[in-house]
Amino acid sequence: MSSPVPGTPSVPEGSAYDLSEPVRMRARWLRALWADRLGRSGLLLLGIVLMLVLVGPILFPFHPTSFGASSASILQGPSSRHWLGTDELGRDILRQTLVGGRISLLVGVSATLIAIVLGAGLGLASGYFAGWRDAVIMRVTDFFLVLPTLPLIVALAALFGQSLVITSLVIGLTSWPQTARIVRSQVLSLRERPLVQRVRSLGATDARIIGSHLLPNLLPLIFANLVLVLAGAVLAEASLSFLGLGDPVHVSWGTMLHFAFSSGAMGVGAWWYVLPPGLGIVALVMGFSLLGHSLERILSPRSREAS
User: Under a CB-based contact definition with an 8 Å cutoff, are residues 172 and 116 in contact?
Assistant: First the structure.
């Protein structure tokens, strides 16, 4: 971030996302995050889950076509051979859970990147340029905000097909409005700051103002919102897959729950088929939620004062 122009009035101390704060000072985020109880809990929870889903499939590879050799291996409880039991086809639940976490995380990250890029871009354009562009973008945003999200995602997924790409696009293209609203409100405040007014009077282009003075100060807000959107994207993928609208070729935590219920596993007391993917979804969503709320409180002085 470029240094302030000499003579520019300083921004009052304590205002959210001060333009005068150097970007390099944001290195204290990690220390503040670890000192915060919610942030520390989120980091530890995510660290455990990520280590399991990233390293686990290497140690315990899953083969979708490796069925049980006999009917005795179907819906078998936890044992020394199958630590988390087997499914209705005699496949190992532990291996499925580890691989399924990768798929759930992959779809969640892909959908979140789509939502954040689209929402932040539209929010930045709406807040900075204002006028008729702001009115058009906000009316489109309001339209998506009033639509029930889950039924919309289900309808789009059923219309366009079942694949990881389609699932990521559907979730991403329906998760951007809140990001756009949040970014727009912050841009409306930042663009009126004395520094921005000064560099505009000196002839700086819109691209220079946005890239050098607005975007660096929006990154903390965008990053904190990204973590929260990621939690929602993982939950949305699990919901779609549970309803049978996920990719049937790839195993995810949502598809595991779908096949567990469709095969009647709970009817025969096969709790080991439902509990691992269910706990995985809960741990991942809770980890991202705790981390996102902690980041929001740390990066925004106003939120910190309110708490």
Answer: no
| CA end-to-end span of the chain | 30
Tell me the C-alpha distance between 208 and 194, whole Å: 16
Neighbours of 188 (CB within 10 A): 15
The conformation of residue 211, written as its DSSP 8-state character, comes to I
Question: Cα dihedral sign for 7, 187, 122, 171?
Answer: positive
Residues constituting the chain: 307
| Cross-strand pairs, 256 | none
Q: Do 96 and 60 meet the contact criterion of CB atoms below 8 Å apart?
A: no
CA 206 to chain centre: 30
* DSSP secondary structure code for residue 43 in this structure: H
Say what the pTM is: 0.84
The helix-helix angle for 28-35 and 37-59 (nearest 10°) equals 100
| Nearest CA-CA partner of 253 in 275, 225, 222 | 275
Looking up tokens 């029930």 gives 148
Per-residue pLDDT of the chain (307 residues; tens, 9 = 90+): 444 433 333 333 334 444 444 445 455 777 888 888 989 999 999 999 999 999 999 998 888 767 765 666 788 889 888 899 999 888 999 999 999 999 999 999 999 999 999 999 999 999 999 889 999 999 999 999 888 888 888 888 888 888 899 999 999 999 999 999 999 999 998 888 888 888 888 888 888 888 888 988 898 889 889 999 999 999 999 999 999 888 888 899 999 999 999 988 888 889 999 999 999 999 999 999 999 888 888 876 555 544 4
The candidate with the shortest Cα–Cα distance to 277, out of 288, 289, 265, 267, is 265
Are 283 and 21 in contact, with CB atoms under 8 Å apart?
no
Structure tokens at 173: 């293209």
- Cβ(107)–Cβ(168) under 8 Å? yes
Query: What is d(CA 166, CA 156) in angstroms, rounded to the nearest whole number?
Result: 9
**Amino acid letter, 189:** S
Q: What angle do CA 301, 109, 226 make, to 5 degrees?
A: 15
Q: Is 210 helix (H, G, I), strand (E, B) or coil?
A: helix
